[in-house]
Amino acid sequence: MSVSREDVRHVAQLARLGVPPEQLDALVAELSGILAHMDTLQGADTSALSVDVDAQPGLLRRADEGPSAPLSRTRESVAPLMRDGFFLVPRLATHDGAEEES
User: Which of 10, 38, 43, 80 has the fewest CB atoms inside 10 Å of its own CB, making it the most exposed?
Assistant: First the structure.
């Protein structure tokens, strides 16, 4: 599978990224290479592998417990606006009016 210049432009537009025209061909080549690698991986024989990764030795997980790491500054000094334990951040100017575009 290969990626076209139009594919890159479309994805960049969806992600609201500016892609300079001089970088377009390099991105097309890079993304096409990534997809070609994924195609190669799809062809790998995995029939001998166990589907249950939790049963694999060496993947022991510890319980998520213990004290939290202390902060060097208060949360309020970094993000003064909070509600219900969540940080409130201003809406990005680039997202204003996004509802009308859909």
Answer: 43
Query: How far is it, in rounded angstroms, from Cα 102 to Cα 98?
Result: 7
Q: Are 88 and 82 in contact (CB under 8 A)?
A: yes
pLDDT per residue over 6-39, tens digit each? 999 999 999 999 999 999 999 999 999 999 999 9
Residues 8, 31 contacting (CB under 8 angstroms): yes
pTM listed for this prediction:
0.47
Compute how many other C-beta atoms are within 10 angstroms of the C-beta atom of residue 40. Answer: 9
Q: What beta strand segments (E) does the chain contain?
A: 82-83, 86-87
Dist CA 44 CA 42 (whole Å)? 6
